[in-house]
Write a structure and sequence with these properties.
With 474 residues, the protein is α/β, with parallel strands linked by helices. It has a twelve-stranded mixed beta sheet with strand order 13-16-19-22-25-28-31-34-37-40-42-43, covered by helices on one side. 46% of the residues are buried.
Length: 474
């Protein structure tokens, strides 16, 4: 069975980014630039273009060629890739040659090498698969991606002979005025026969700038009358990111793709121009996203939810039929049918079980809130475990920090915490217990007991069929 290896060139310094962060790690819709390219490479076997090759072709983990600050990049992606190092920055041809040892050590040894750039995050798996399929079906020595554009700018021009055969790629700096009029340009994705590639790269001459250019391989293959194939794609897909202006332009394209993906999958996004969703976010069908909503990280939202307006959600798991209004959620878990807001905050470690209702200007941090519990406005739960069917009334808080350490509060099922109650942790409120409005609870409250005052003292035991003696606010 034939195999192929993908080499991603990611050794550039990225000086035009004006950043201490390696260019490949700059974020685009919540994912590093290189991560977008790796995702496209990894998805090649699942594309329709690859379907005819499933039984005859297999792939290896991508090989990433690193250079400047490569340790940070390797640490970010770990075993997702294999790595090679370009010790000196001597051009794209030199960078690819740096991958030879790593590629040739693969078992089975690949017959085909697919090459792309790590700073082209808009490239899609479908076009990569098309280049690979064309290369194998035509048995070409080189296959590469081209595009048509009315504004070629600094892209290399594709020079063809009178029969339409590719003869060379001419870089802008050495193109003639006639060649600058060519509208077919190089897009930076290549497939090579491995054996021909390595021997030719080793003999590749330096150009006028003292570097080894990958594009010069095209003229060499043409002079040898080798078969050269091309696939035409959209120029947008291989736009390189060299500065933050281009990063922002690519961000708009990627975010539009993400929004369209969700809308085609059954999510209603009322105002796409004012909705920001990261690439890793998952949303169930029939959920509605309202304007001014920002959803980031590996967030998952279920079906039939209503999110927004003016809501930010990061790294959070949300179940089905939830309503989140004008609120902020980060690293939290919400089960089905939870309501939050408006103007509330779930901080890291918040876990709201099924049917929890969290009112306006409320906050939960590092706490479990049991099913069907009501947490009313201007309330705070920090480092707490709350049972089911609890009423946590307006203005009530857990006082969880003593100036040195955090302490936990435990509230039993069906407890009723009256307005403006302060629970001074560590403290436990038993099942079916009640606290009076304004109580400051410094000692454990037994089950089915009513406490009032500052500090809170036992008022009476209660029968379970009692109605609350001191009402809380909603």
């Amino acid at each position: 069975m034939n195999t192929y290896a993908t080499v991603v060139l990611a050794a550039g310094k990225g000086t035009r980014m004006r950043s201490t962060l390696p260019k490949m790690l700059h974020q685009l819709a919540g994912i590093p630039l290189l991560g977008h390219v790796l995702t496209a490479v990894e998805a090649i076997p699942s594309t329709s273009a690859f379907a005819s090759l499933h039984e005859s072709l297999t792939s290896h983990r991508p090989v990433v060629v690193l250079g400047h600050e490569g340790e940070q990049i390797a640490a970010a992606f770990g075993e997702r890739c294999l790595y090679a190092v370009q010790q000196e920055q001597l051009g794209t041809g030199h960078a690819l040659l740096a991958a030879q040892v790593t590629v040739d050590a693969l078992q089975p040894v690949p017959e085909t090498v697919l090459v792309c750039y790590g700073d082209t995050p808009l490239v899609r798996s479908e076009i990569l698969a098309s280049v690979l399929t064309e290369h194998l079906s035509t048995q070409a020595t080189i296959t590469f991606l081209t595009a048509q554009t009315e504004l070629p700018s600094d892209y290399g021009r594709i020079v063809r002979d009178s029969h339409g055969q590719v003869r060379e790629i001419v870089e802008v700096k050495r193109a003639t005025p006639e060649q600058l009029e060519i509208r077919e340009v190089n897009s930076g994705v290549y497939c090579f026969q491995r054996a021909w590639l390595w021997s030719t790269l080793q003999a590749l001459p330096r150009n006028a700038s003292g570097e080894y250019y990958l594009t010069d391989l095209i003229a060499i293959a043409g002079a040898q009358e080798r078969r050269i194939a091309t696939v035409q794609g959209e120029l947008e897909e291989t736009i390189g990111i060299n500065n933050r202006v281009q990063l922002a332009e690519a961000e708009q394209i990627v975010r539009q793709r993400v929004l369209e993906k969700h809308m085609y999958a059954g999510v209603t996004i009322q105002d796409p121009a004012n909705t920001y969703i990261d690439a890793d976010v998952q949303i169930g069908s029939d959920t509605v996203i309202l304007p001014g909503t920002v959803i980031t990280g590996k967030t998952t939202i279920g079906s039939w939810c209503r999110i927004g307006p003016g809501t930010t959600i990061d790294q959070t798991l949300i179940g089905d039929r939830c309503i989140i209004r004008n609120s902020a959620l980060e690293e939290a878990i919400l089960e089905d049918e939870v309501r939050v807001g408006p103007f509330s905050h779930c901080r890291p470690g918040a876990y709201l079980a099924r049917g929890v209702r969290m009112g306006n200007f409320a906050e939960v941090k590092n706490s479990y809130v049991g099913a069907e519990t009501d947490m009313h406005h201007f309330s705070y739960l920090g480092d707490a475990t709350v049972g089911e069917h609890v009423n946590f009334a307006a203005g009530s808080i857990t006082s969880n920090f003593d100036g040195k350490q955090k302490h936990r509060t435990t509230i039993g099922n069906r407890a009723f915490i009256g307005c403006d109650t302060t629970l001074v942790a560590p403290v436990t409120v038993g099942e079916d217990a009640y606290t009076g409005a304004g109580a400051v609870v410094t000692k454990d409250v037994p089950p089915a007991t009513v406490v009032v005052g500052v500090p809170a003292k036992v008022l009476r035991k209660r029968e379970l069929e009692d109605t609350p003696a001191i009402q809380g606010g909603e």
